Amino acid sequence: MYCHEIPGFPGAFHYPGFLTQSAQHDMSVQIIKIIQQAPLFVSYMPRTGVPMSVRMTNCGPLGWMSDKTLGYRYVSAHPETLRPWPAIPSHLLEIWDELTRYPKPPEACLVNVYNLDAKMALHQDRDEIDLAAPILSLSLGYDCRFRLGGQKRNDPSETFVLSSGDALVLKGPARRCFHGVDRILPTIGSELASPLADFGVRLNLTLRRVNE
Ligand code: MD3
Ligand code: FE
Protein backbone atom coordinates (compact mmCIF):
# COMPACT_ATOMS: atom_id res chain seq x y z
CA MET A 1 0.00 0.00 0.00
CA TYR A 2 1.53 3.31 -1.15
CA CYS A 3 1.53 6.30 1.24
CA HIS A 4 3.34 9.62 1.44
CA GLU A 5 3.46 12.35 4.07
CA ILE A 6 2.46 15.58 2.30
CA PRO A 7 5.57 17.80 2.13
CA GLY A 8 5.22 20.84 4.39
CA PHE A 9 2.35 19.28 6.36
CA PRO A 10 3.75 16.92 9.00
CA GLY A 11 1.11 14.43 10.14
CA ALA A 12 -0.86 14.56 6.84
CA PHE A 13 -0.62 11.16 5.11
CA HIS A 14 -2.02 10.64 1.60
CA TYR A 15 -2.84 7.16 0.26
CA PRO A 16 -3.61 7.69 -3.45
CA GLY A 17 -5.85 4.94 -4.83
CA PHE A 18 -6.14 3.22 -1.45
CA LEU A 19 -9.44 1.60 -2.45
CA THR A 20 -9.44 -0.56 -5.57
CA GLN A 21 -12.14 0.10 -8.12
CA SER A 22 -14.11 -2.88 -6.83
CA ALA A 23 -13.75 -1.67 -3.21
CA GLN A 24 -14.90 1.79 -4.34
CA HIS A 25 -17.95 0.19 -5.94
CA ASP A 26 -18.77 -1.84 -2.81
CA MET A 27 -18.26 1.19 -0.55
CA SER A 28 -20.50 3.32 -2.80
CA VAL A 29 -23.27 0.71 -2.55
CA GLN A 30 -22.94 0.69 1.27
CA ILE A 31 -23.12 4.49 1.42
CA ILE A 32 -26.21 4.55 -0.83
CA LYS A 33 -27.84 2.15 1.67
CA ILE A 34 -26.92 4.50 4.53
CA ILE A 35 -28.46 7.45 2.66
CA GLN A 36 -31.66 5.40 2.23
CA GLN A 37 -31.87 4.96 6.02
CA ALA A 38 -30.62 8.44 6.96
CA PRO A 39 -31.56 10.87 4.16
CA LEU A 40 -29.21 13.64 3.05
CA PHE A 41 -29.84 16.95 4.83
CA VAL A 42 -28.43 20.47 4.69
CA SER A 43 -26.59 22.14 7.57
CA TYR A 44 -26.71 25.90 8.18
CA MET A 45 -24.04 28.33 9.31
CA PRO A 46 -24.34 29.29 12.98
CA ARG A 47 -25.89 32.76 13.58
CA THR A 48 -26.30 33.70 9.86
CA GLY A 49 -28.37 30.65 8.91
CA VAL A 50 -26.72 30.58 5.45
CA PRO A 51 -27.16 27.04 4.06
CA MET A 52 -24.03 25.04 3.27
CA SER A 53 -23.66 23.86 -0.35
CA VAL A 54 -22.73 20.32 0.72
CA ARG A 55 -25.48 17.81 1.54
CA MET A 56 -24.66 15.40 4.34
CA THR A 57 -25.64 12.46 6.48
CA ASN A 58 -23.82 10.35 9.06
CA CYS A 59 -23.32 6.85 10.35
CA GLY A 60 -22.00 5.76 13.74
CA PRO A 61 -23.04 6.54 17.32
CA LEU A 62 -22.67 10.29 16.68
CA GLY A 63 -23.25 12.52 13.68
CA TRP A 64 -22.16 16.08 12.87
CA MET A 65 -24.66 18.81 12.00
CA SER A 66 -25.09 22.56 12.27
CA ASP A 67 -28.03 24.93 12.34
CA LYS A 68 -28.60 28.64 12.85
CA THR A 69 -29.48 28.61 16.55
CA LEU A 70 -27.46 25.77 18.08
CA GLY A 71 -24.47 25.80 15.70
CA TYR A 72 -21.92 23.06 15.07
CA ARG A 73 -22.44 19.92 17.15
CA TYR A 74 -22.51 16.14 17.35
CA VAL A 75 -25.90 14.51 17.87
CA SER A 76 -27.03 10.89 18.26
CA ALA A 77 -30.06 11.13 15.94
CA HIS A 78 -30.88 12.36 12.43
CA PRO A 79 -32.27 15.95 12.61
CA GLU A 80 -35.31 15.13 10.44
CA THR A 81 -36.16 11.45 11.00
CA LEU A 82 -35.07 11.65 14.70
CA ARG A 83 -33.85 8.05 14.33
CA PRO A 84 -30.38 6.93 15.49
CA TRP A 85 -27.71 7.04 12.77
CA PRO A 86 -27.04 3.72 10.94
CA ALA A 87 -23.98 1.74 12.04
CA ILE A 88 -20.57 2.38 10.46
CA PRO A 89 -19.96 -0.38 7.84
CA SER A 90 -17.46 -2.96 9.12
CA HIS A 91 -15.11 -2.38 6.17
CA LEU A 92 -14.78 1.28 7.23
CA LEU A 93 -13.99 0.22 10.82
CA GLU A 94 -11.28 -2.12 9.47
CA ILE A 95 -9.79 0.70 7.37
CA TRP A 96 -9.76 2.95 10.48
CA ASP A 97 -7.80 0.28 12.40
CA GLU A 98 -5.41 -0.33 9.51
CA LEU A 99 -4.61 3.30 8.69
CA THR A 100 -4.80 5.02 12.10
CA ARG A 101 -3.79 2.22 14.53
CA TYR A 102 -5.77 4.27 17.07
CA PRO A 103 -6.84 2.10 20.05
CA LYS A 104 -10.48 3.25 20.04
CA PRO A 105 -13.05 3.01 17.23
CA PRO A 106 -14.40 6.08 15.41
CA GLU A 107 -17.61 7.51 16.88
CA ALA A 108 -18.73 9.52 13.87
CA CYS A 109 -18.60 9.05 10.12
CA LEU A 110 -19.72 12.19 8.31
CA VAL A 111 -20.84 11.60 4.72
CA ASN A 112 -20.46 14.78 2.64
CA VAL A 113 -22.06 14.82 -0.84
CA TYR A 114 -20.80 17.47 -3.27
CA ASN A 115 -22.62 18.44 -6.46
CA LEU A 116 -20.47 20.13 -9.13
CA ASP A 117 -21.14 23.58 -7.63
CA ALA A 118 -20.57 22.61 -3.98
CA LYS A 119 -17.52 23.66 -1.97
CA MET A 120 -16.35 23.81 1.62
CA ALA A 121 -14.84 27.02 2.99
CA LEU A 122 -11.50 26.96 4.81
CA HIS A 123 -12.08 25.78 8.40
CA GLN A 124 -10.59 23.82 11.29
CA ASP A 125 -12.22 20.69 12.74
CA ARG A 126 -12.50 21.50 16.44
CA ASP A 127 -15.96 20.35 17.50
CA GLU A 128 -14.45 17.14 18.86
CA ILE A 129 -13.47 16.73 22.53
CA ASP A 130 -10.65 14.32 21.63
CA LEU A 131 -8.42 16.51 19.45
CA ALA A 132 -5.53 14.06 19.89
CA ALA A 133 -7.23 11.32 17.87
CA PRO A 134 -6.52 11.17 14.13
CA ILE A 135 -9.09 11.86 11.40
CA LEU A 136 -9.51 9.53 8.42
CA SER A 137 -11.04 10.71 5.14
CA LEU A 138 -12.00 8.65 2.07
CA SER A 139 -12.98 10.19 -1.27
CA LEU A 140 -15.28 8.65 -3.91
CA GLY A 141 -16.62 9.88 -7.25
CA TYR A 142 -15.47 13.13 -8.82
CA ASP A 143 -12.06 14.58 -7.99
CA CYS A 144 -11.76 17.78 -5.98
CA ARG A 145 -9.25 20.55 -5.47
CA PHE A 146 -8.50 20.27 -1.75
CA ARG A 147 -6.78 23.11 0.17
CA LEU A 148 -4.53 22.51 3.16
CA GLY A 149 -3.14 25.37 5.26
CA GLY A 150 -1.48 25.85 8.61
CA GLN A 151 -2.79 26.10 12.15
CA LYS A 152 -3.70 29.79 11.70
CA ARG A 153 -6.27 30.94 9.13
CA ASN A 154 -3.82 33.20 7.29
CA ASP A 155 -0.92 30.73 7.14
CA PRO A 156 0.11 29.88 3.58
CA SER A 157 -1.87 27.05 1.98
CA GLU A 158 -1.44 24.68 -0.92
CA THR A 159 -3.89 22.78 -3.09
CA PHE A 160 -3.92 19.09 -4.02
CA VAL A 161 -6.23 16.89 -6.03
CA LEU A 162 -8.13 14.24 -4.07
CA SER A 163 -9.38 11.44 -6.33
CA SER A 164 -11.84 8.58 -6.04
CA GLY A 165 -10.40 5.88 -3.79
CA ASP A 166 -7.88 8.16 -2.04
CA ALA A 167 -7.50 8.03 1.75
CA LEU A 168 -6.11 10.84 3.88
CA VAL A 169 -5.05 10.48 7.53
CA LEU A 170 -4.59 13.62 9.62
CA LYS A 171 -2.74 13.21 12.89
CA GLY A 172 -0.44 15.25 15.12
CA PRO A 173 -0.03 18.86 13.95
CA ALA A 174 -2.04 18.23 10.74
CA ARG A 175 -5.14 17.45 12.84
CA ARG A 176 -5.41 21.18 13.61
CA CYS A 177 -4.68 22.50 10.11
CA PHE A 178 -7.14 24.71 8.25
CA HIS A 179 -8.54 22.94 5.18
CA GLY A 180 -11.34 23.16 2.64
CA VAL A 181 -12.61 22.06 -0.76
CA ASP A 182 -12.11 24.80 -3.39
CA ARG A 183 -14.00 23.07 -6.17
CA ILE A 184 -15.22 19.79 -7.56
CA LEU A 185 -13.46 18.68 -10.75
CA PRO A 186 -15.75 16.82 -13.17
CA THR A 187 -13.03 14.25 -13.84
CA ILE A 188 -12.26 10.83 -12.47
CA GLY A 189 -8.92 9.05 -12.39
CA SER A 190 -9.41 6.45 -15.16
CA GLU A 191 -8.68 3.28 -13.20
CA LEU A 192 -10.21 4.72 -10.00
CA ALA A 193 -13.63 5.58 -11.41
CA SER A 194 -16.42 5.13 -8.90
CA PRO A 195 -20.02 4.38 -9.91
CA LEU A 196 -20.88 7.49 -7.89
CA ALA A 197 -19.27 9.67 -10.54
CA ASP A 198 -22.09 8.52 -12.82
CA PHE A 199 -24.40 10.45 -10.49
CA GLY A 200 -22.25 13.57 -10.96
CA VAL A 201 -21.14 13.86 -7.33
CA ARG A 202 -18.11 13.67 -5.09
CA LEU A 203 -18.57 11.89 -1.82
CA ASN A 204 -16.29 12.22 1.18
CA LEU A 205 -16.38 10.05 4.30
CA THR A 206 -14.74 11.52 7.39
CA LEU A 207 -14.24 9.22 10.37
CA ARG A 208 -13.64 10.84 13.71
CA ARG A 209 -13.30 10.14 17.37
CA VAL A 210 -15.40 12.68 19.31
CA ASN A 211 -15.09 11.84 23.02
CA GLU A 212 -11.92 10.94 24.93
C1 MD3 B 1 -7.17 18.33 7.22
N1 MD3 B 1 -14.37 17.60 4.74
O1 MD3 B 1 -16.07 17.39 6.82
S1 MD3 B 1 -11.91 15.73 4.07
C2 MD3 B 1 -15.08 18.12 6.96
O2 MD3 B 1 -13.64 16.68 1.46
C3 MD3 B 1 -14.15 18.32 5.83
O3 MD3 B 1 -15.49 16.75 2.58
C4 MD3 B 1 -13.61 17.78 3.52
O4 MD3 B 1 -13.26 19.09 5.93
C5 MD3 B 1 -14.29 17.00 2.43
O5 MD3 B 1 -14.80 18.69 8.02
C6 MD3 B 1 -12.19 17.40 3.67
C7 MD3 B 1 -10.19 15.73 4.47
C8 MD3 B 1 -9.89 16.35 5.79
C9 MD3 B 1 -10.68 16.16 6.88
C10 MD3 B 1 -10.31 16.70 8.11
C11 MD3 B 1 -9.14 17.42 8.24
C12 MD3 B 1 -8.74 17.08 5.90
C13 MD3 B 1 -8.35 17.63 7.11
C14 MD3 B 1 -8.71 17.95 9.46
C15 MD3 B 1 -7.53 18.63 9.55
C16 MD3 B 1 -6.77 18.84 8.43
FE1 FE C 1 -13.02 19.63 8.01
Features:
mainly beta, binds fe (iii) ion, 13% helix, binds N-(carboxycarbonyl)-S-(naphthalen-2-ylmethyl)-L-cysteine, 212 residues, 4-stranded antiparallel beta sheet, single chain
What secondary-structure arrangement, pairings included, does this model have?
Blueprint: E1 4-5, E2 12-15, H1 21-37, E3 41-44, E4 51-59, E5 63-65, E6 73-75, H2 90-100, E7 108-114, E8 120-123, E9 135-141, E10 143-148, E11 158-162, E12 167-170, E13 179-185, E14 202-208
Antiparallel strand pairs: 1-2, 2-12, 3-4, 4-7, 5-6, 7-14, 8-13, 9-12, 9-14, 10-11, 10-13
Bound molecules: N-(carboxycarbonyl)-S-(naphthalen-2-ylmethyl)-L-cysteine (MD3) and fe (iii) ion (FE).
Count the strands? 14
SSE series:
EEHEEEEHEEEEEEEE
Taking strands numbered 1, 2, ... along the chain, how are they ordered across the largest sheet?
1-2-12-9-14-7-4-3
Profile the largest sheet.
8 strands, antiparallel
Radius of gyration using CA atoms only: 16 Å
- What is the overall number of helices? 2
Low-confidence stretches: none
Structural class of the secondary structure composition? mainly beta
Span between N and C termini? 30 Å
Spatial shape = globular
Percent of sequence in beta strands: 25-35%
Helical percentage: 10-25%
Mean pLDDT: 95
Bound molecules: N-(carboxycarbonyl)-S-(naphthalen-2-ylmethyl)-L-cysteine, fe (iii) ion
Structure in words:
With 212 residues, this protein is mainly beta. The chain is 13% helix and 34% strand. It contains two helices and 14 strands, in the order ββαββββαββββββββ. The strands form three sheets. An eight-stranded antiparallel beta sheet has the order 1-2-12-9-14-7-4-3, with helices on one face. The protein has a four-stranded antiparallel beta sheet with strand order 8-13-10-11, with no helix packed on it. A two-stranded antiparallel ribbon has the order 5-6. It is globular, with a radius of gyration of 16 Å. The model has no long low-confidence stretch (mean pLDDT 95). The structure holds N-(carboxycarbonyl)-S-(naphthalen-2-ylmethyl)-L-cysteine and fe (iii) ion (FE). Fe (iii) ion is lined by residues 123, 125, 179.
